[in-house]
Amino acid sequence: MRVTVVVLLSLFFVSLKVWADEQLPVLKVGSEVYSNVTVTSVTATDIYFTHDKGLGNTKLKNLDPAMQQHFHYDAAKASTTEQKQWAANAQYSLPGAGAAGPAPDPSNPKAVMEDAMARVKAIVNQPVTELRRTPDMEVSTYQPGWFHAGAEKPNFDTVDVRATQDLQYGRNEYVTSDLNPGVAFNGRELEFNSMTKYFYTDRSLPKKRLLEAEMVEINRLYRIIGSCEQKLNQPQITEAPVAASMGFLSQHKPAVIGGAAAILVFLVGVQLMRNKEV
To answer: Is residue 242 domain-resident?
Structure first.
């Protein structure tokens, strides 16, 4: 049994070594074609490589079927791996905190809403990989900056951020902006989303391309935010007039009794004067 395990492990690492050393004349990824490719690493979800213009990586699911089969791509396993990676990375503690804080009081809609917003910001503003720009890189530059000013407030009750995910940066291998001299970013790792822009914090940097599970989580948090907004916008219930009057009487009881007695004496006096006139 022990020998069998050793043999299997040896075969596994040998296969990884073969992939890692493999050289390909070309590698096609969608509409992009890379030349003089050397595979440096292959995981269940990604392939990493060098080519004649620098470094690159892509999802195995973006390769053509023949190359997917060549690298033993399994869509189900890849999806499971991505879900686990997201779960491991997304115990979404607030930026700068080592762990998530205590859950907010569910009876306090303001606290619940602020907690949900903080979690959305943590997902949306994850760091992206910055690459040192080299002369041989073909880099597309966005200017002025990455984003236009302002942001549309999402309809938290209905929006699906998966429908507005824009992957236009992926049309270029490397992208940058006039705000990031000397730095480039892998276009396929980035996204723009008009329905998460409301939560962008540092607009001098592009935003990480989100996984399906991350966008589903944002949708869930948006529903919480929308529900809390409705609760906070409800008119405050004012004290009923009768209850308010009783409260006033209770607080000013001696004065009220004295005033009532004075009015009663006055009315009795008026009535006696009328009786005499008759």
So the answer is: no
